[in-house]
Specification:
Uridine Diphospho-n-acetylenolpyruvylglucosamine Reductase, domain 3, five-stranded antiparallel beta sheet, alpha+beta, 4 domains, seven-stranded antiparallel beta sheet, Uridine Diphospho-n-acetylenolpyruvylglucosamine Reductase, domain 2, Alpha-Beta Plaits, 20% strand
Length: 471
């Protein structure tokens, strides 16, 4: 037990400083790959208490690691002897202003709570992914999380107008502006988003809301190829004025694994196709969302018209449209089971890459050719937010061998770099992608990042060992 505990108890109260067995829930991440051994877990309930906690940690020379919903996949909250600071008690929505379409919320707010609060005002918070029932706003900001709606609304950074940050020495940096335009110097807000707590702890944020869709048109579509899928996306964007909200790639191998893992989930077609897309269009226009006498929606017409034309051309092989909320939910359930399906098999090598939209097929073809040369008998699985070029590519090697895993990841990096992509799309860097950072990140960019880290955290106590590779 650290000597800082009495000071932390004095600042936060004995119930909010956890030690020993009481820390059990904070010692492992969602993947089970990383195990933490914090000296204590502090649970502040306000920005002032976070500031006090970090001042105490500074006085005792402790490293500090932020903990949100603990749904991360890259080891971002791992610590060995550091102080873990959980923001789960900072879970207040401070304000929701429908007229300006913003919500001011603390870092510990669960994303689904933001969805519910926005829906009560006929608005929508468009940060949407499978872990929304446990992931927190602070975690999403710290990793610049993405999800299924990035195609239309952008990632977390694009949805954020302002942040409140506590620095390593306990100073509070108030960047809680609600402005859509502010050219008063450096964009400091953006520096903390995606930094994974290495520069400061985000304690609150101002987030954008959008009008709640009045209706959705959702379909599963089987296509001849990925090129045809991209053609479908572009035609739908043109036909709907950019109203495509999601465009998710679920190929044949994924569908087969889904069928094996969850036989209770009905597959969409009579047979499994190599290329299948979950597409959703959303509208706020009343005329598009008002049902006709037969129950059909005008919104669906645009989708059906494009699908019918591409069916005649031979590009679309089959399609299933959701005719009810229940059918739509089933379609989305197939997609949101991806993590469960993927991580059910061990060992696995998980990557999260981003590519230009027209190079996704090139990446998959290159890896299909390269993988047998690295590990004959290895299997792979891809699922993607195809509309924004983000591929979750997982390899199931024939053996659990760190050297083999490194060889696979290096080959993924080689292919991604040759296609002008990124080795990290939406999960963050944490520990698992530090090697990739060292190998692939521009050296000058790394120098600038290290300079920022040294200026804001000269003692290297803020989530040390994450994101930045050693110099």
């Amino acid at each position: 037990m650290t000597h800082a505990v009495p000071d932390l108890i004095a600042a936060l109260g004995p119930a909010n400083v956890l030690t020993g067995p009481d820390m059990a829930a904070y010692t492992h991440d969602w993947t089970g790959k990383y195990t933490s051994r914090p000296c204590a877990v502090a649970r502040p309930a306000s920005t002032a208490e976070v500031a006090a906690t970090l001042r105490i940690a500074q006085a005792h020379g402790l490293s500090v690691v932020p903990a949100g919903g603990r749904t991360g996949l890259v080891g971002g909250l791992m610590t060995d002897g550091g102080l873990m600071v959980s923001l789960d008690r900072m879970n207040r929505i401070r304000a929701l202003r429908p007229s300006s379409r913003v919500v001011v919320a603390e870092a510990g707010v669960i994303l689904s709570s933001l969805h519910d609060a926005a829906a009560a005002e006929n608005l929508y918070f468009p940060l949407w992914f499978g872990a929304r029932g446990s992931a927190t706003l602070g975690g999403a900001l710290s990793t610049n999380a993405g999800g299924s709606n990035v195609l239309r609304y952008g990632s977390t950074r694009a949805l954020c107008l302002g942040v409140e940050v506590v620095l390593a020495d306990g100073r509070v940096l108030d960047l809680m502006g609600e402005l859509h335009k502010d050219n008063s110097g450096y964009a400091l807000k953006d520096m903390f988003i995606g930094a994974e707590g290495t520069l400061g702890f985000i304690t609150a944020a101002v987030m954008k809301l959008v009008p709640a869709p009045r209706a959705h048109a959702t379909a599963m579509v089987a296509l001849r190829s990925l090129d045809d899928a991209l053609h479908l996306l572009n035609r739908l964007q043109q036909a709907t004025g950019g109203a495509v909200a999601a465009f998710e790639y679920m190929p044949g191998p994924y569908m087969r694994r889904l069928a094996a893992a969850r036989p209770d989930i009905r597959l969409p077609f009579d047979r499994i196709h190599d290329t299948a897309i979950l597409v959703e269009i959303a509208t706020t226009i009343p005329d598009q969302a008002t049902p006709r006498d037969d129950g059909s929606l005008p919104l669906t017409d645009s989708l059906e018209t494009v699908l019918a034309a591409m069916l005649d051309e031979g590009a679309v092989l089959d399609a299933e449209l959701a005719r009810s909320d229940t059918q739509r939910a089933t379609m989305w359930q197939r997609r949101e089971l991806a993590a469960e399906v993927t991580f059910a098999r061990k060992p696995s090598i998980d990557t999260d890459v981003s590519l230009p939209l027209d190079r996704v097929g090139d990446f998959l073809s290159a890896m299909q050719a390269a993988l047998p040369t690295i590990d004959p008998g290895a299997d792979s699985l891809a699922i993607a937010h195809l509309g924004d070029g983000n591929i979750h590519y997982t390899v199931f090697p024939t053996r659990d061998d760190p050297a083999l895993a490194e060889a696979v990841v290096t080959k993924v990096e080689d292919v991604v770099q040759s296609l002008r992509g990124s080795f990290s799309a939406e999960h963050g860097v944490g520990l698992s992608k530090k090697g990739s950072m060292a190998r692939r990140k521009n050296p000058v960019a790394l120098q600038v990042m290290r300079s920022l880290k040294a200026a804001l955290d000269p003692d290297n106590r803020m989530n040390p060992g994450k994101v930045l590779p050693e110099a």
